[in-house]
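quick q for whoever's on today - can somebody do inverse folding on this one?? i tried earlier but teh output was garbage lol. tokens:
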């Protein structure tokens, strides 16, 4: 009997605790809109808005919703939490953009990494189709679409696009 009373009391206490917690509603489409940051360094240290190292690291391939972009000593820093920023030396900004692309028939199409350095080992065959899920931009605004992990193709090589719906 004593055990039942204790269990009932704990259940009532937990129910009361959960009922007073605040609830925040989020629209589903807000999760896929906006800009994101991905870490491409082995580990990326976080910085404050003043440029001070925080001693906190984020792992490679981790993704973050982008708050603001600030410049510290001429370098871009991407806000991923309250007064926590990733350096552009360790990460890059992207936008979700699911689509199927077909590349030019004029010959092999060069592939670039997220730092926009051309690969010497990989190229896409002419006229081939690929699924792409994100887009990044060079500093001059030229778009590149992702066709594989850390492999991007310049949009000027894309001759056809079919947008897909992300479920």
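ok took a stab at it. sequence:
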């Amino acid at each position: 009997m004593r055990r039942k009373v204790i269990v009932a009391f704990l259940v009532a206490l937990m129910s009361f605790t959960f009922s007073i917690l605040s609830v925040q509603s989020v629209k589903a489409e807000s999760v896929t809109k906006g800009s994101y940051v991905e870490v491409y360094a082995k580990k990326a240290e976080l910085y404050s808005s003043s440029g001070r190292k925080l001693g906190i690291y984020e792992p490679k391939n981790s993704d973050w919703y982008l708050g603001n972009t600030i410049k510290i000593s001429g370098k871009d820093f991407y806000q991923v939490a309250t007064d926590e920023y990733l350096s552009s030396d360790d990460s890059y900004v992207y936008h979700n953009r699911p689509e199927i692309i077909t590349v030019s028939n004029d010959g092999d199409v060069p592939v670039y990494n997220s730092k926009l350095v051309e690969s010497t080992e990989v190229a896409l065959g002419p006229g081939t189709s690929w699924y792409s899920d994100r887009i990044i931009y060079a500093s001059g605004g030229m778009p590149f679409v992702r066709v594989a992990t850390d492999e991007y193709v310049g949009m000027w090589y894309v001759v056809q696009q079919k947008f897909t719906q992300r479920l």
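fwiw Confidence is low (pLDDT under 50) at residues 21-31. also The first strand starts at residue 35 and ends at 39. so keep that in mind when u check it
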